[in-house]
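User: I'm writing a short report section on ligand binding and want a predicted complex to refer to. Could you take this sequence and iron/sulfur cluster and write out the structure as C-alpha coordinates? A short remark afterwards would be nice.
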Amino acid sequence: MSLLQVRGLKMHFPVHGGILYRKLATVYAVDGVDFEIEAGETLGLVGESGCGKSTVGRSLLKLYEPTAGEVRFEGKNVAEIRGSELRSLRAEMQMIFQDPFESLNPRHTVGSILEEPFVIHGEKKAAARRQKAMELLLRVGLPEDAYHKFPHEFSGGQRQRIGIARAIALRPKMIICDEPVSALDVSIQSQILNLLIELQQEMGLAYLFIAHDLAVVKHISDRIAVMYLGRIVEIADSQTLYRDPQHPYTQALIASIPVPDPRQRKDFEPLPGEVPSPLHPPPHCHFVERCPYAQDICNQQTPELKALDPEDPKRRVACHFAGQLKPSGR
Ligand code: SF4
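Assistant: Sure. The C-alpha coordinates for the complex follow:
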Protein backbone atom coordinates (compact mmCIF):
# COMPACT_ATOMS: atom_id res chain seq x y z
CA MET A 1 0.00 0.00 0.00
CA SER A 2 1.32 3.44 -0.94
CA LEU A 3 1.87 6.00 1.84
CA LEU A 4 -0.36 8.49 -0.01
CA GLN A 5 -2.97 7.73 -2.66
CA VAL A 6 -4.86 10.46 -4.50
CA ARG A 7 -7.76 9.52 -6.76
CA GLY A 8 -9.88 11.87 -8.88
CA LEU A 9 -9.03 14.92 -6.76
CA LYS A 10 -10.96 18.04 -7.79
CA MET A 11 -10.85 21.48 -6.24
CA HIS A 12 -13.27 23.95 -7.79
CA PHE A 13 -13.70 27.43 -6.32
CA PRO A 14 -16.96 29.36 -6.86
CA VAL A 15 -16.62 33.01 -7.90
CA HIS A 16 -19.32 35.20 -6.33
CA GLY A 17 -20.26 38.77 -7.20
CA GLY A 18 -22.98 41.33 -7.83
CA ILE A 19 -25.33 42.94 -5.29
CA LEU A 20 -26.80 39.58 -4.22
CA TYR A 21 -23.36 37.94 -4.15
CA ARG A 22 -24.53 35.19 -6.49
CA LYS A 23 -22.27 32.52 -7.90
CA LEU A 24 -21.07 33.86 -11.25
CA ALA A 25 -18.50 31.30 -12.32
CA THR A 26 -16.25 28.45 -11.21
CA VAL A 27 -12.46 28.28 -11.12
CA TYR A 28 -11.42 24.74 -12.05
CA ALA A 29 -8.15 24.90 -10.08
CA VAL A 30 -7.68 21.12 -9.80
CA ASP A 31 -9.74 19.03 -12.17
CA GLY A 32 -9.26 15.32 -11.55
CA VAL A 33 -5.79 14.38 -10.34
CA ASP A 34 -4.47 10.85 -9.59
CA PHE A 35 -1.09 9.92 -8.12
CA GLU A 36 0.52 8.01 -5.30
CA ILE A 37 3.64 8.50 -3.16
CA GLU A 38 5.57 5.68 -1.52
CA ALA A 39 7.29 5.94 1.88
CA GLY A 40 10.70 7.62 1.53
CA GLU A 41 10.02 8.73 -2.06
CA THR A 42 10.09 12.21 -3.61
CA LEU A 43 7.44 13.02 -6.18
CA GLY A 44 8.09 16.32 -7.98
CA LEU A 45 4.98 18.22 -9.11
CA VAL A 46 5.76 20.76 -11.84
CA GLY A 47 3.83 23.14 -14.03
CA GLU A 48 3.44 26.82 -14.81
CA SER A 49 2.16 29.28 -12.19
CA GLY A 50 -1.58 28.91 -11.73
CA CYS A 51 -1.76 25.29 -12.96
CA GLY A 52 -3.13 24.13 -9.58
CA LYS A 53 -0.07 22.44 -8.08
CA SER A 54 -0.10 24.39 -4.78
CA THR A 55 -3.86 23.80 -4.50
CA VAL A 56 -3.19 20.05 -4.75
CA GLY A 57 -0.71 20.32 -1.84
CA ARG A 58 -3.12 22.26 0.35
CA SER A 59 -6.02 19.91 -0.43
CA LEU A 60 -3.96 16.92 0.77
CA LEU A 61 -3.64 18.54 4.20
CA LYS A 62 -7.33 19.48 4.34
CA LEU A 63 -6.43 23.18 4.25
CA TYR A 64 -9.07 23.12 1.50
CA GLU A 65 -12.04 20.73 1.44
CA PRO A 66 -11.80 19.03 -1.97
CA THR A 67 -14.82 19.32 -4.29
CA ALA A 68 -14.49 15.64 -5.25
CA GLY A 69 -12.09 12.73 -5.12
CA GLU A 70 -10.32 10.82 -2.42
CA VAL A 71 -7.06 11.27 -0.53
CA ARG A 72 -5.81 8.28 1.49
CA PHE A 73 -2.85 8.55 3.86
CA GLU A 74 -1.66 5.17 5.13
CA GLY A 75 -4.97 3.78 3.85
CA LYS A 76 -7.15 6.22 5.84
CA ASN A 77 -9.56 8.47 3.99
CA VAL A 78 -8.41 11.98 4.94
CA ALA A 79 -11.91 13.45 4.35
CA GLU A 80 -13.32 11.31 7.18
CA ILE A 81 -10.63 12.19 9.72
CA ARG A 82 -11.69 14.62 12.47
CA GLY A 83 -10.60 15.91 15.90
CA SER A 84 -7.58 14.28 17.52
CA GLU A 85 -7.09 11.96 14.54
CA LEU A 86 -6.80 15.04 12.30
CA ARG A 87 -4.18 16.47 14.70
CA SER A 88 -2.22 13.23 14.42
CA LEU A 89 -2.51 13.31 10.62
CA ARG A 90 -1.12 16.85 10.57
CA ALA A 91 1.80 15.69 12.71
CA GLU A 92 2.58 12.99 10.17
CA MET A 93 2.01 15.12 7.06
CA GLN A 94 3.64 18.56 7.31
CA MET A 95 4.15 21.47 4.94
CA ILE A 96 7.03 23.80 4.07
CA PHE A 97 5.79 27.01 2.50
CA GLN A 98 7.16 28.96 -0.43
CA ASP A 99 7.76 32.24 1.29
CA PRO A 100 9.88 32.00 4.46
CA PHE A 101 9.19 35.73 5.03
CA GLU A 102 5.43 35.17 5.27
CA SER A 103 5.21 31.75 6.88
CA LEU A 104 6.83 32.60 10.23
CA ASN A 105 5.03 34.72 12.83
CA PRO A 106 7.14 37.93 13.12
CA ARG A 107 6.03 38.48 16.76
CA HIS A 108 7.31 35.13 18.00
CA THR A 109 10.90 34.18 18.73
CA VAL A 110 12.33 31.24 16.83
CA GLY A 111 12.28 29.30 20.11
CA SER A 112 8.54 29.74 20.56
CA ILE A 113 7.89 28.95 16.84
CA LEU A 114 9.77 25.65 17.19
CA GLU A 115 8.22 24.78 20.54
CA GLU A 116 4.64 25.36 19.34
CA PRO A 117 4.19 21.90 17.73
CA PHE A 118 5.27 20.28 21.01
CA VAL A 119 2.81 22.46 22.98
CA ILE A 120 -0.04 21.46 20.62
CA HIS A 121 0.90 17.80 20.94
CA GLY A 122 0.94 17.83 24.74
CA GLU A 123 4.56 18.29 25.84
CA LYS A 124 4.02 20.05 29.17
CA LYS A 125 7.63 20.35 30.37
CA ALA A 126 9.22 23.65 29.26
CA ALA A 127 12.77 22.27 29.63
CA ALA A 128 11.98 19.30 27.36
CA ARG A 129 10.45 21.60 24.73
CA ARG A 130 13.46 23.89 24.83
CA GLN A 131 15.86 20.95 24.51
CA LYS A 132 13.96 19.66 21.44
CA ALA A 133 13.93 23.14 19.86
CA MET A 134 17.71 23.41 20.36
CA GLU A 135 18.24 20.02 18.73
CA LEU A 136 16.13 21.11 15.75
CA LEU A 137 18.17 24.31 15.33
CA LEU A 138 21.42 22.35 15.26
CA ARG A 139 19.94 19.77 12.87
CA VAL A 140 19.06 22.39 10.26
CA GLY A 141 22.41 24.20 10.59
CA LEU A 142 21.44 27.18 12.76
CA PRO A 143 23.32 28.32 15.90
CA GLU A 144 21.78 27.85 19.35
CA ASP A 145 21.48 31.61 19.89
CA ALA A 146 18.87 31.65 17.09
CA TYR A 147 16.45 30.41 19.78
CA HIS A 148 16.07 33.92 21.26
CA LYS A 149 15.91 35.85 17.98
CA PHE A 150 12.96 36.91 15.81
CA PRO A 151 12.45 35.83 12.16
CA HIS A 152 13.33 39.30 10.77
CA GLU A 153 16.88 38.89 12.12
CA PHE A 154 17.61 36.09 9.61
CA SER A 155 18.32 35.89 5.88
CA GLY A 156 15.87 34.18 3.50
CA GLY A 157 17.80 30.91 3.50
CA GLN A 158 18.03 30.88 7.31
CA ARG A 159 14.29 31.53 7.59
CA GLN A 160 13.63 28.59 5.30
CA ARG A 161 15.82 26.48 7.61
CA ILE A 162 13.56 27.57 10.50
CA GLY A 163 10.51 26.53 8.41
CA ILE A 164 12.13 23.14 7.77
CA ALA A 165 12.95 22.71 11.48
CA ARG A 166 9.31 23.39 12.35
CA ALA A 167 8.15 20.89 9.71
CA ILE A 168 10.34 18.04 11.04
CA ALA A 169 9.66 18.78 14.73
CA LEU A 170 7.09 16.00 15.15
CA ARG A 171 9.00 13.50 12.97
CA PRO A 172 6.46 13.38 10.13
CA LYS A 173 6.34 10.66 7.47
CA MET A 174 5.67 13.06 4.65
CA ILE A 175 6.32 16.74 3.90
CA ILE A 176 4.61 18.81 1.22
CA CYS A 177 7.28 21.23 0.01
CA ASP A 178 5.43 24.08 -1.72
CA GLU A 179 8.07 25.83 -3.87
CA PRO A 180 10.50 25.87 -0.91
CA VAL A 181 13.44 27.36 -2.80
CA SER A 182 11.85 29.56 -5.44
CA ALA A 183 12.05 32.71 -3.26
CA LEU A 184 15.78 32.13 -2.51
CA ASP A 185 19.00 33.15 -4.27
CA VAL A 186 20.39 30.46 -6.57
CA SER A 187 23.47 30.05 -4.36
CA ILE A 188 21.26 29.27 -1.34
CA GLN A 189 18.85 26.98 -3.24
CA SER A 190 21.29 24.09 -3.47
CA GLN A 191 22.09 24.28 0.27
CA ILE A 192 18.39 23.98 1.13
CA LEU A 193 17.88 21.16 -1.40
CA ASN A 194 20.84 19.28 0.07
CA LEU A 195 19.46 19.75 3.59
CA LEU A 196 16.12 18.30 2.45
CA ILE A 197 17.90 15.31 0.87
CA GLU A 198 19.94 14.67 4.05
CA LEU A 199 16.83 14.82 6.23
CA GLN A 200 15.04 12.43 3.89
CA GLN A 201 17.86 9.90 4.16
CA GLU A 202 18.02 10.21 7.95
CA MET A 203 14.30 10.18 8.69
CA GLY A 204 12.87 8.18 5.76
CA LEU A 205 10.68 11.13 4.75
CA ALA A 206 8.48 11.20 1.66
CA TYR A 207 8.21 14.53 -0.16
CA LEU A 208 5.69 16.03 -2.53
CA PHE A 209 8.03 18.65 -4.03
CA ILE A 210 6.08 21.38 -5.81
CA ALA A 211 8.01 23.69 -8.15
CA HIS A 212 7.85 25.44 -11.50
CA ASP A 213 11.57 24.96 -12.19
CA LEU A 214 12.24 21.60 -13.87
CA ALA A 215 15.99 21.77 -13.18
CA VAL A 216 15.36 22.07 -9.41
CA VAL A 217 12.80 19.25 -9.46
CA LYS A 218 15.15 16.96 -11.39
CA HIS A 219 17.81 17.39 -8.69
CA ILE A 220 15.60 16.08 -5.89
CA SER A 221 12.83 13.87 -7.35
CA ASP A 222 12.54 10.11 -7.84
CA ARG A 223 9.46 10.59 -10.01
CA ILE A 224 7.91 13.69 -11.57
CA ALA A 225 4.29 14.58 -12.34
CA VAL A 226 3.69 17.39 -14.86
CA MET A 227 0.54 19.48 -14.38
CA TYR A 228 -1.24 21.63 -16.92
CA LEU A 229 -4.40 23.60 -16.13
CA GLY A 230 -5.58 21.51 -13.20
CA ARG A 231 -4.65 18.05 -14.50
CA ILE A 232 -1.61 15.78 -14.51
CA VAL A 233 -0.59 15.26 -18.14
CA GLU A 234 2.41 12.97 -17.57
CA ILE A 235 4.01 11.10 -14.69
CA ALA A 236 7.21 9.07 -14.84
CA ASP A 237 10.47 8.43 -13.03
CA SER A 238 12.69 11.48 -13.43
CA GLN A 239 15.34 9.90 -15.69
CA THR A 240 12.67 8.64 -18.11
CA LEU A 241 10.77 11.90 -18.11
CA TYR A 242 13.86 13.92 -19.08
CA ARG A 243 15.18 11.37 -21.55
CA ASP A 244 11.92 10.52 -23.29
CA PRO A 245 9.07 12.98 -22.58
CA GLN A 246 5.85 11.85 -24.26
CA HIS A 247 3.26 14.57 -23.68
CA PRO A 248 3.70 17.62 -25.98
CA TYR A 249 3.58 19.93 -22.95
CA THR A 250 6.34 18.00 -21.14
CA GLN A 251 8.36 18.02 -24.36
CA ALA A 252 8.04 21.81 -24.59
CA LEU A 253 8.93 22.32 -20.91
CA ILE A 254 12.07 20.19 -21.19
CA ALA A 255 13.11 21.79 -24.48
CA SER A 256 12.89 25.22 -22.82
CA ILE A 257 15.39 24.42 -20.00
CA PRO A 258 18.43 26.66 -20.61
CA VAL A 259 21.63 24.80 -21.59
CA PRO A 260 24.87 26.35 -20.27
CA ASP A 261 27.05 25.08 -23.17
CA PRO A 262 26.18 27.09 -26.33
CA ARG A 263 27.48 24.25 -28.57
CA GLN A 264 24.81 21.93 -27.21
CA ARG A 265 21.92 24.34 -27.73
CA LYS A 266 19.30 23.52 -30.32
CA ASP A 267 16.52 25.70 -31.60
CA PHE A 268 13.11 24.98 -30.20
CA GLU A 269 9.71 26.41 -30.98
CA PRO A 270 8.15 28.06 -27.92
CA LEU A 271 4.54 27.07 -27.32
CA PRO A 272 2.06 29.41 -28.99
CA GLY A 273 -0.41 31.43 -26.91
CA GLU A 274 -1.03 31.57 -23.18
CA VAL A 275 -2.36 29.09 -20.64
CA PRO A 276 -6.19 29.43 -20.88
CA SER A 277 -8.06 30.78 -17.86
CA PRO A 278 -9.03 28.10 -15.31
CA LEU A 279 -12.48 29.74 -15.44
CA HIS A 280 -12.95 28.41 -18.98
CA PRO A 281 -10.65 25.47 -19.67
CA PRO A 282 -11.17 23.61 -22.96
CA PRO A 283 -13.72 20.87 -22.22
CA HIS A 284 -11.65 17.84 -23.28
CA CYS A 285 -7.87 17.99 -23.66
CA HIS A 286 -6.93 21.15 -21.72
CA PHE A 287 -3.79 21.56 -23.85
CA VAL A 288 -5.58 21.56 -27.20
CA GLU A 289 -5.32 25.32 -27.90
CA ARG A 290 -1.50 25.24 -27.72
CA CYS A 291 -0.75 21.77 -28.99
CA PRO A 292 1.07 21.48 -32.35
CA TYR A 293 -0.30 17.94 -32.81
CA ALA A 294 -4.00 18.57 -32.04
CA GLN A 295 -6.57 16.62 -34.11
CA ASP A 296 -10.37 16.58 -34.08
CA ILE A 297 -10.52 13.84 -31.46
CA CYS A 298 -8.71 16.14 -28.98
CA ASN A 299 -11.79 18.41 -28.96
CA GLN A 300 -14.19 15.47 -28.65
CA GLN A 301 -12.72 13.10 -26.06
CA THR A 302 -10.81 13.73 -22.83
CA PRO A 303 -7.49 11.85 -22.90
CA GLU A 304 -7.10 9.63 -19.83
CA LEU A 305 -3.89 9.48 -17.82
CA LYS A 306 -2.93 5.92 -18.68
CA ALA A 307 0.11 3.66 -18.83
CA LEU A 308 2.03 3.53 -22.11
CA ASP A 309 3.35 0.09 -21.26
CA PRO A 310 1.32 -2.36 -19.12
CA GLU A 311 4.59 -3.54 -17.57
CA ASP A 312 5.35 -0.02 -16.32
CA PRO A 313 2.05 1.18 -14.78
CA LYS A 314 3.75 4.09 -12.97
CA ARG A 315 4.67 5.77 -16.26
CA ARG A 316 1.44 7.40 -17.48
CA VAL A 317 0.54 10.00 -20.11
CA ALA A 318 -2.71 11.84 -20.89
CA CYS A 319 -2.60 12.25 -24.68
CA HIS A 320 -4.49 10.47 -27.48
CA PHE A 321 -1.23 10.20 -29.43
CA ALA A 322 1.19 9.31 -26.62
CA GLY A 323 4.02 7.13 -27.90
CA GLN A 324 3.69 8.51 -31.44
CA LEU A 325 4.98 12.09 -30.98
CA LYS A 326 8.64 13.06 -31.45
CA PRO A 327 9.97 15.76 -29.11
CA SER A 328 10.81 19.02 -30.90
CA GLY A 329 13.99 20.97 -30.02
CA ARG A 330 16.82 19.45 -28.04
FE1 SF4 B 1 -2.20 17.45 -28.10
FE2 SF4 B 1 -4.36 15.99 -28.64
FE3 SF4 B 1 -2.44 14.99 -27.11
FE4 SF4 B 1 -4.03 16.94 -26.23
S1 SF4 B 1 -4.64 14.86 -26.74
S2 SF4 B 1 -1.84 16.81 -26.00
S3 SF4 B 1 -4.32 18.15 -28.05
S4 SF4 B 1 -2.28 15.56 -29.28
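A remark for your report: The CA atoms of residues 40 and 204 lie 5 Å apart. Residues 4-261+302-317 form a domain with the Rossmann fold fold (CATH 3.40.50.300).
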